[in-house]
Design a protein that fits this description.
The complex is a heterodimer.
Chain A (H helix, E strand, L loop, with lengths): L5 H19 L7 H29 L1 H8 L5 H24 L2 H26 L7 H18 L4 H30 L3 H19 L14 E4 L8 E2 L2 E2 L1 H18 L1 H11 L1 H6 L4 H26 L3 E3 L6 H11 L4 H23 L7 H15 L1 H8 L18
Antiparallel strand pairs in A: 1-4, 2-3
Helix pairs in contact in A: 2-15, 2-16, 3-4, 4-5, 4-14, 5-9, 5-12, 5-13, 5-14, 6-7, 6-8, 6-12, 6-13, 7-8, 7-12, 9-10, 9-12, 9-14, 10-12, 13-14, 13-15, 14-15
Chain B lengths: L1 H13 L6 H27 L4 E4 L12 E4 H20 L7 H23 L14 H23 L7 H19 L2 H25 L4 H22 L4 H4 L10 E3 L9 H6 E3 H19 L1 H11 L1 H6 L4 H21 L17 H11 L4 H21 L7 H5 L1 H14 L16
The chains are: A mainly alpha, B mainly alpha.
């Protein structure tokens, strides 16, 4: 069966490619024509998500539910309480995210690991791979960075550098396993990365029962916190790992847009067969891409564990690895987009805590719903335009990973 | 004619001598694996000191079924011999390619399992002696949601819609199963709630994938995030007050029903036919999906829109309508799979109660090469490994965390070593727009 459906396969491809040209590949940021539709759709998607979120707040607020009971006798109460609940929740959300210096620092510190891991997922997407394994790469990165951080006694700058390198190397190695297996045997990266996630978390659990990792005199699965000499120094109220994240985003952009490897990655992502015909080593690209993606996830783990004097626990990676996928998707797999998406998600995470503490006591899980809705609406520009009666076409394209590939 | 026959016959005679490189590589892998198995079994046999191991045929030791003695050394040596024979056969390239070959693999696998389990349970240090128990009941139970999820994945992907969101369907199914069962004070209403929730998620998947042409990989991830967030959010809205909570998140659980007659069969009867209604639904679902996909007109249409939608359209099949039907139909199974995590096992819903098992179901779909029976086999394999892990956690021979990673390592080895490149349905993930 070689007669693939050429006509209908070629068309969407060409379209995706054209969109990728306009949105993804560096685009010409000086001309608003190229990025304005994207910005508009994204803003509209955020707005729509907030509207749906408001509905959830209303139906979950106790006062509102009570007022709904006598809605037909005194409807005003219902609207008053509903408005109050929405206003309180969203005000707390915004204040908690950007309302003060401390809130802003919190946002940045939360965004940094998301940006790093998100960049890893983005790069893999650009090479046509779906890296669900950021979680496992994060865990191994955290194990390596943490181990160097709390075991050795080294001078200040060197210790931090060594821990950082260890974390990145650990994550890179873990990512490269999946890339290498795909390159050599064709094992699908979705399966191998999922499985490697579980292997990584089992490894972490196992290591936490060992004396080398446990706190002396304790049986809890918890390590010592990393030494002061291995933590990121504080700058303007947030730790300097944030700056590392931004710098890495610039490097990722340079790698993708200005280097031969980046070009090969994009070529393989667009059409692996064509890239092979053009003389590129697809195997090398798969392995290297996953190596770099894993390294970036490892860097996210470094942010996490060296940023807050953290100790290694079973939950060190939280759900970062999976949030990173959403961040990469919202960022349309471009470095700039990923940074912006990471900042937005960081803001939501940091504001969500304040929201739960506010009078309306809206649960922090709402931010998770908001995140998912934003990405969903961004991915469905037709829906957003339909609901908001917007006219323009274009924008809101999501590139990458067309199918299971092979 | 005569000449042609002669040439073909000659070619056929030459055939065994010229072997494909891939075939040689396959044989080498097989020999290596079999040799490792044999070596491990010999190692087990040599390291066991005390030859007495206890076992029961049921799932646990009860008054009616006291543990029996099993001589460890004979079992170990017999299994080592079986594995050695397998190795020799593989080295001589004498393993047949038909069902007899499968029997050989099964025998070697069984020998390894027997040897490993006897080794793991031998020489126990504590005063209490754990007994080897029947692995089948636990395997079937644990595999139930995985099988159902994998069936949902097969249905969608055979129709050309990628379904990564099985995990999301599980979560919604689990949550609404709990709520429906609590409201109705009836576990079976939970199954209805689960089906509705699964179909609801499937409808979301379909509307965004088919109507708004959203990239389906993106969509799956987003739907999982949405389901995780939404169920956690709704759960935190249920008050802790027991008077209210009992109406929302304290469902009755499904009872086990012993099928008369069948459940009396020794060893397997108890395992297969003394389970909850959900497990029986799982058996039925496997047959139904395999039958519908491969024996009915509608199944042929589903497969054709997944392979070549344009050709299907040309002969008058409404591509998107068939895809809608397939996705919604799949949602039924995914929802039922979710019900396992609440009314099917522990009862109340908890945050992220399905713990990533939807991803395992997804992996089972791919490992089973998008065939319902293959996917079922892969899912049962996971159930078996998890059950083994939980049984062996009572024995201290291997750290449970290391044991915990074996199913995943085994999958990686299986996928990288033997499954290799797989071929998804040709139009999987490609929206069809009529031009």
């Amino acid at each position: 069966m070689t007669d693939k459906p050429e006509p209908d396969a070629a068309e969407p491809d060409a379209e995706t490619h054209a969109r990728a040209e306009s949105v993804g590949q560096g685009a010409d940021l000086r001309s608003p024509v190229t990025w304005l539709p994207t910005v508009k759709v994204t803003a509209a998607a955020i707005l729509l998500a907030l509207v749906v979120g408001a509905l959830l707040i209303v139906v979950s607020d106790r006062e509102v539910i009570e007022a709904a009971g006598y809605f037909f006798d005194y409807p005003w109460d219902f609207f008053k309480f509903a408005g109050e609940a929405i206003w309180e929740s969203y005000r707390a959300l915004v204040l908690g995210a950007v309302g003060s210096g401390a809130a802003l620092s919190q946002t940045l510190e939360r965004a940094a690991p998301l940006i790093c891991a998100g960049l890893g997922v983005s790069l893999a997407f650009r090479a046509g791979m779906f890296n669900i394994g950021a979680q496992g790469q994060l865990i191994i990165g955290a194990v390596c960075a943490g181990f160097v951080g709390f075991t050795f006694d080294l001078p200040i700058g060197l210790h931090l550098l060594l821990a950082l390198v260890a974390g990145v190397a650990g994550g890179a190695l873990w990512g490269a396993i999946a890339g290498y297996l795909k390159a050599q045997t064709g094992a699908h990266e979705v399966i191998t990365t999922i499985m490697l996630n579980y292997v990584a978390s089992s490894t972490l659990l196992y290591l936490l029962t060992k004396d080398a990792f446990q706190r002396p005199g304790s049986d809890n699965p918890r390590s010592l916190p990393v030494d002061d000499s291995a933590t990121f120094p504080m700058l303007f109220g947030f730790h300097s790992g944030v700056l590392v994240a931004i710098a890495v985003a610039v490097v990722a952009w340079w790698l993708l847009e200005r280097t031969t490897l980046g070009f090969e990655m994009r070529a393989v992502g667009a059409n692996a067969d064509a890239a092979r015909t053009a003389g590129m080593s697809v195997r090398k690209v798969y392995t290297l891409t996953m190596l770099i993606a894993g390294g970036l996830a490892g860097l996210a783990a470094v942010q996490q564990i060296l940023g807050h004097h953290d100790s290694l626990t079973a939950n060190v990676a939280g759900s970062l690895g999976f949030d990173a996928i959403t961040v990469a998707l919202l960022g349309r797999a471009t470095p700039l987009g990923t940074v912006l998406a990471g900042l937005l998600f960081g803001a939501l995470a940091s504001g969500g805590i304040q929201m739960q503490a506010s009078e309306a006591a809206t649960p922090v899980e709402l931010t998770q719903v908001l995140q998912a809705l934003i990405v969903l609406f961004v991915a469905a520009p037709a829906l957003v335009r339909g609901v908001l009666r917007m006219k323009e076409s274009g924008g809101g394209a999501t590139v990458m990973a067309k199918g299971w590939g092979s | 004619m005569g000449l042609v026959t002669a040439i073909t016959a000659e070619a056929a005679q030459d055939l065994p001598r010229v072997r494909d490189r891939a075939d040689v590589v396959r044989q080498v892998k097989l020999v290596v694996v079999m040799a490792v198995v044999t070596a491990l079994l010999v190692f087990f046999a040599l390291t066991v000191d005390n030859s007495h191991v206890q076992f029961v045929l049921g799932e646990r030791v009860t008054v009616d079924s006291p543990p029996k003695e099993l001589p460890a050394h004979p079992v170990l040596w017999v299994s080592a011999v079986v594995a050695a024979v397998g190795t020799v056969l593989a080295a001589a390239n004498r393993i047949p390619r038909d069902w007899r070959g499968v029997v050989v693999y099964l025998l070697v696998g069984l020998a390894f399992y027997a040897g490993f389990i006897v080794w793991a349970y031998s020489d126990q240090s504590g005063s209490f002696q754990s007994s080897i128990a029947n692995p089948l009941p636990g395997t079937i139970r644990i595999a139930t949601p995985l099988v159902l999820g994998a069936l949902a994945g097969c249905m969608c992907e055979r129709a050309g819609v990628i379904n990564i969101a099985i995990e999301g369907q599980f979560l919604m199914g689990a949550f609404f199963a709990s709520v429906a069962a609590s409201l109705a004070f009836n576990a079976y209403m939970g199954l209805v709630g689960a089906i509705l929730a699964g179909v609801g998620m499937a409808a979301l998947l379909a509307v965004f994938a088919l109507r708004y042409l959203v990239n389906q990989v993106v969509l799956g991830v987003v739907l999982i995030a949405l389901a995780t967030g939404l169920t956690s959010f709704l759960l935190s809205q249920i008050p802790g007050d027991p008077a209210i909570k009992q109406y929302f998140n304290e469902p009755p659980r499904l009872d086990t029903i012993a099928i008369p007659g069948l459940s009396q069969i020794p060893v397997v009867g108890e395992a297969l036919f003394n389970q909850t209604a959900l497990v029986y639904l799982m058996y039925v679902s496997v047959v139904v999906v395999a039958f519908v996909l491969f024996q009915t007109k509608w199944g042929l249409r589903v497969r054709s829109v997944g392979e070549h939608p344009k050709a299907a359209d040309t002969v008058g099949i409404k591509v998107n309508r068939v895809r809608w039907q397939a996705v919604l139909f799949g949602g039924v199974f995914a929802g039922l799979g979710g019900a396992y995590y609440t009314v099917g096992s522990t009862g109340a819903f908890d945050r992220e109660v399905s713990a990533g098992n939807g991803f395992i179901a997804l992996a089972a779909v791919i490992m089973g090469r998008w065939h319902p029976l293959g996917a079922t086999a892969a899912a049962v394999f996971f159930g078996f490994m998890w059950n083994l892990q939980s049984q062996l956690s009572f024995v201290d021979k291997i750290p449970s965390q290391l044991l915990g990673m074996t199913p995943y390592l085994a999958t990686i080895i299986a996928v990288a070593g033997f499954v290799g490149r797989v071929r998804p349905p040709a139009a999987d993930g490609e929206p069809y727009v009529k031009s």
